[in-house]
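Q: Please design a sequence for this.
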């Protein structure tokens, strides 16, 4: 384990990797107790063997840190060089990590990976991990560290297959008004009846395609019964970006469905889409999962108590 830590981690990380291996293995052998842990309450190590015989070969190692905040960190997951990118052994170790995290009642499994370690990034993203951000020179000068996570809480609510997008109609006005006023004013000051009325007026001007008249194109997400579960309005801008405002829904499932449909609906209007959203965990996870890029944090831009995020999607 000491040798595998040192040889695998040294290209991407500074520090004494053998001492790192000793520390986490000591904690594991002490029934998982981390006597030096601050946020870590337990450390557990798993070894992948080729079979159950006395002559079995060690194929890889997985170490997990259980955190006080209800998450589990992979630190690290390593296969011996001859078994990388083949045989699915990495998936076996990751499945062990997921099973362990679920047993702990964790809501999230996360890790950090050097941006230069392309095979590892591909592996984790292929298994449902989302990119949360990056940190230049985090653990080694010149090396950028990526932050990846996978949520473990099963989603409920309306199935995306029961939703469809359609163009806003005059008969939708009352329901869409209520949806907007229920969803937005807590994080966006000034969103009121007048704001909603101006939005609908902009939709009526859409046929002229005049940017200076601030036209909008509104769609709604309707469920199998016809009930509206979400709405989004596109407003093209000078220079060919397209602002999505509002973009709101009654549930995370409906919000995620709209994110999947938006490029198809508005992909011909401009070169990029962008939207401003409150910095909530649920919205952030959905935007990251949809491949949207965090472009900026705007403190008190729309509300004194909220930091608003600008997200973009290149077309």
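A: Design:
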């Amino acid at each position: 384990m000491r040798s595998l830590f040192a040889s695998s981690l040294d290209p991407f990380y500074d520090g004494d990797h053998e001492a790192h291996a000793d520390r986490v293995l000591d904690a594991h052998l002490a029934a998982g107790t981390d006597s030096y842990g601050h946020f870590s309450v337990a450390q557990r190590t798993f070894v992948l063997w080729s079979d159950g015989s006395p002559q079995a070969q060690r194929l890889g190692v997985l170490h997990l840190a259980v955190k006080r905040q209800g998450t589990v960190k992979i630190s690290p997951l390593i296969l011996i060089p001859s078994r990388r990118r083949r045989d699915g052994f990495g998936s076996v170790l990751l499945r062990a990590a997921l099973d362990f995290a679920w047993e702990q009642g964790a809501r999230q499994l996360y890790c950090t990976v050097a941006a230069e370690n392309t095979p590892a990034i591909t592996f984790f993203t292929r298994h449902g991990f989302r990119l949360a951000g990056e940190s230049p020179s985090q653990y080694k000068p010149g090396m950028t560290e990526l932050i990846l996570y996978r949520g473990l809480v099963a989603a409920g609510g309306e199935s995306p297959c029961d939703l469809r997008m359609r163009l806003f109609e005059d008969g939708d006005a009352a329901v869409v008004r209520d949806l907007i006023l229920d969803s937005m004013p807590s994080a966006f000051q000034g969103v009121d009846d007048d704001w909603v009325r101006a939005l609908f007026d902009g939709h009526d001007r859409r046929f002229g395609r005049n940017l200076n008249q601030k036209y909008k194109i509104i769609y709604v997400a309707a469920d199998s019964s016809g009930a509206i579960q979400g709405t989004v309005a596109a407003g093209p801008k000078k220079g060919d970006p397209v602002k999505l405002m509002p973009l709101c829904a009654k549930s995370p499932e409906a919000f995620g469905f709209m994110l999947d449909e938006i490029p198809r609906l508005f992909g011909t209007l401009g070169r990029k889409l962008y939207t401003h959203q409150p910095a909530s965990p649920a919205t952030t996870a959905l935007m990251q999962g949809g491949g949207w890029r965090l472009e900026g944090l705007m403190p008190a831009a729309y509300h004194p108590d909220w930091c608003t995020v600008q997200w973009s999607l290149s077309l």
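Q: Thanks. Anything notable?
A: The mean pLDDT is 93. Residues 89-103 form the longest helix (15 residues).
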